[in-house]
Amino acid sequence: MTTKSILITGCSSGIGLHAALTLSARGYQVFATARKAQDVADLQAKGLTAYQLDLTNTDSITQAVTQVLEKTGGRLDYLFNNGAYGQPGALEDLPTQVLRDQFETNVFGWHELTKQIIPVMKRQGHGRIIQCSSVLGVVSMAYRGAYNASKYAIEGLTDTLRLELKSANIEVVLLEPGPINTQFRANALLAVQANIDIEASDHKVQYQQQIARLSSEKSNAPFTLEPLHVTQALIHALESKQPKLRYRITTATKLFAVLKRLLPARWLDYLLAKG
Predict the structure, then answer these.
(1) For an engineered disulfide with 151, which of 83, 93, 137, 178 has Cβ 3.0 to 4.6 Å away?
(2) What is the pTM of this model?
(3) What is the end-to-end Cα distance of the chain in Å, rounded?
(4) What would the pLDDT profile of 158-182 be if each residue is shown by its tens digit?
(5) Distance between CA 126 and CA 245 in Å, rounded?
(6) Continuous H helices in the chain
(7) CA–CA separation, 150 vs 172, rounded Å?
(8) Residues 6+ apart with CB under 8 A from 255
């Protein structure tokens, strides 16, 4: 059996790190990537083949793709777009440049990387692209507008890409995790403190509540799972002869997907406002 190759973004911690280690142990040729040089060194110390890849920098993306293809002889079976971060904040408090920065990492970087990988997959006649979206690409929640918008964009791009690549034998799949215990919350805390003028905001009380929530060591959100559960869905998406179009991971995602279909919009808003 030929060893399957996969490029994974966002491997410094959480979902990406767990996926990289698990798939490597499973026999995949894993190319783990991260934005910071120290994180790349840490990945290499764990025995992974790792490269630096900054999703906001096209040259960095191109260099990483070149390094991967040199190792594989110009082939790549799978791409797992996972690298992302969450920028909390009420939309009225969010500087436009901060919103642009969110999209540079969470959307435009994925688009550029995917654009560079698609010709590789077309030449070899097959491939799978797995996109890690979120429950917040299914429904929206207050104070998460930048992240909501980036994941809605990923959902739209992925659905379109799936239609466009069907004839090329390239399958495109969405993972939609709900709350997962990762460094995501700690990074979101840094982002809100760095980019939002909390003291001057009409939402100061809500920000204080958000900061208290994000400062806790583990998520207190209902139905929170571990990175393992995302990796399990990823493995099915990679290895199934007929992968699902969407993998709804955690009870929260499954519940809100059903409620969005069944409830009037105002009723759904009422429930989401409580979150």
Answers:
(1) 137
(2) 0.95
(3) 47
(4) 999 999 999 999 999 999 999 998 8
(5) 17
(6) 14-25, 37-45, 58-72, 96-103, 109-124, 145-165, 184-195, 204-215, 227-239, 251-262, 265-273
(7) 18
(8) 223
Tokens at 229, concatenated:
């559960």
Active site annotation includes 270? no
Distance CA 137, CA 142 (A): 13
| CA nearest neighbour of 254 among 135, 145, 83 | 135
As given in the structure block, the two tokens for residue 210 are: 């958000």
Handedness of CA 91, 93, 96, 98 (dihedral sign): negative
Query: Which residue type does 207 have?
Result: Y
Tell me the C-alpha distance between 244 and 240, whole Å. Answer: 9
| 219 pLDDT above the threshold of 80 | no
Catalytic pick among 51, 85, 147, 152: 147
Model confidence over 121-162: pLDDT tens digits?
Answer: 999 999 999 999 999 999 999 999 999 999 999 999 999 999
With H, G, I as helix, E, B as strand and everything else as coil, classify residue 136.
Answer: helix
For residues 17 and 90, the answer to whether their CB atoms sit within 8 Å is no
Class in CATH terms, 5-273: alpha beta
Of 176, 163, 168, the residue nearest 229 (C-alpha): 176
* Domain residue extents for the chain: 5-273
15 contacts 88 by C-beta, under 8 angstroms: no
